[in-house]
Design brief:
Number of helices: 2
Largest sheet: 7 strands, antiparallel
Strand content: 35-45%
Shape: globular
Number of strands: 14
Helix content: 10-25%
């Protein structure tokens, strides 16, 4: 008998949940609607800054700018309907986070050094929470039956839940930021780590 034994889990799609679609980063210049989009700003060869949101483009003296707001201020403006300061950034220095296709999800090689180009911002592929070193405050994706629940933040590190599962408590991002500006603790949900991915 030289044939290998069949894999008993090969036809069970829920044995290992599929990763969420990866975040891809594209130049803002090609985008029409920027309001509320997650963006990064920076200069090739210098570096990038994230956790920002964009507002609608503005044209001044034939140059196009993007009002860029720190994400916590954007959520406060949306929640409390207040105006916040938004510096104007030249559109060629703004990149937008978009969702790629599931087919373009790169495989995680198990760590190690990963070199990137300094010509544009790079983004890591989705990482299973159980492989992350720390998750508090990080953006996570909850995979429920192949459906992605995004705009969540991890509120705890991994811990042993009441049912014996290894879990992380997550909160909607709006409530995560409201916790900072109002001191109002968020509503959290206990999620087993095998259903969570760091975005």
């Amino acid at each position: 008998m030289t044939e290998p034994l069949p894999d008993p889990f090969a036809d069970q799609p829920d044995w290992a949940p599929q990763p969420p679609r990866p975040v891809e980063i594209v130049p803002a210049a090609g985008r029409v609607d920027l309001r509320g989009q997650r963006v990064l700003v920076g200069l090739p060869g210098l570096g990038w800054r994230g956790d920002l949101r964009a507002d609608e483009k503005v044209v001044q003296n034939s140059r196009t700018y993007v009002p860029v707001i720190p994400e916590h201020e954007w959520y406060r403006a949306e929640s409390d309907q207040v105006e916040v300061f938004a510096p104007l950034v030249p559109i060629e220095r703004v990149w937008v986070e978009t969702l790629g296709s599931a087919a373009s999800t790169p495989t995680v090689d198990g760590g190690g050094l990963r070199l990137v180009s300094l010509d544009a911002p790079a983004h890591r592929p989705p990482t299973p929470v159980f492989e992350a070193d720390s998750v508090v405050g990080r953006r996570v994706v909850h995979m429920v039956g192949g459906v992605e629940q995004r705009d969540l933040r991890a509120v705890t590190e991994t811990y042993s839940g009441a049912e014996g599962d290894i879990c992380v408590r997550v909160a909607p991002e709006m409530e995560w930021y409201r916790w900072a500006w109002r001191g109002q603790p968020p509503t959290t949900l206990e999620v087993p780590v095998h259903l969570l991915w760091v975005e």
